[in-house]
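Archive maintenance. Older records in this collection stored only the sequence; we are now back-filling the structure field for every entry so that each record is complete. The fields below show one back-filled record exactly as it appears after the update. Entries are processed alphabetically, and Formimidoylglutamase is next in the queue.

ARCHIVE ENTRY
Title: Formimidoylglutamase
Organism field: Hymenobacter lucidus
Length field: 382
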Amino acid sequence: MNLAIFFDPLREELTAASAASTTLANYATRFLDSFPDWRVADLALIGLNEWRGSAGGQPEVHGADEVRRRFYQLQKGTGSLRIADLGNLRPGLTLEDTYLRLREIVATLLEHNTVPILLGGSQDLDYGQFLAYETLERPVSFAMVDSRVDMAEHDTAPPEDSHLRRILMHEPNFVFNFAQLAHQQYLVAPDVLAALEKLHFETLRLGQVRDDIRQAEPLLRQADFVSFDVAALRWNDAPAYYPANPFGLTNEEAAKLAWYAGHNDQLSSFGLYGYRPDHDTHGLAASALATMLWYFIEGFYHRRNETDFQSRRFIRYAVGLPGSPAKLVFYKAKRTEKWWLEVESLADSAVKRIVPCSYEDYFKAAQGDLPNRWILTQALLG
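Back-filled structure field:
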């Protein structure tokens, strides 16, 4: 497929190599005169400037380019760093056309095991990101990081306020699990959180992330894709959205979550949405997002391909319980010390799934209690 027809090349000022040979500018293959060979890249950066789904309209400045300006001046991290910057996506004639265009592009990259990084535009563009996974013909899991839960029902709501609802209501339904992270409970209607609980989806409030950010790691490790809204960051750290919010993730916490996402062996696309450069007068938010991308990429190149649970790279723990089930099986990776939990369907023993968990889940089982993650996964297995 010729992906070049969907993209505009980058401006020359964004493609000049840095004087310092160790910066990212000297390692990424960027779209200038010729389209980069994305088939040999591990990661593909895609700039977005589609805002028709937002009530705030389109900013005057291209947000993805402002982030690039700072990103390419960062120092190279770990790994061979095979990154292709495909340039900026040309929006479709309609917003729906843009969604379908993203679907086709992301699906093509997934087919060739190249991880798309979607940068810019309003968060409803993750609907196009999500649609690409329909081509996999298997259930998928995803995670969303946002200060709100975008499930507005009224007809006048802009797509950026209702995109999660559209994803979860999509037919055919191929969502296995969903996790909502860093939302602020006073910004979310109680019936929305009740609906997620009824669907057996996991949520992690901002305060819970703040108390122990390690709780977020298993939720991100289960995701096939992640959608991250810059509005999840507090305004003082990232003045790049409207309305301003004095509460939210710090830059350090956001970078840690980006690293968790990149380190997930299963994750195959990452969206970083909602950056409005017209609010970012000093470029603080652009620098924060550039650093988040750096940490995502750094996490990617630290992946350990921990998926063979029968190999010697794992320790298997069987924990007896007094009721049903009579036994739980946990796996611990020797190198990274990450934990997984095997969940066998009570309705059909042939159906089972190994899901990420934490040491706290194992400890709770060792005390004779069923971990909540087992209960939720059992409900999802039906």
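Update note: The radius of gyration is 21 Å. The mean pLDDT is 95.
Entry marked complete.
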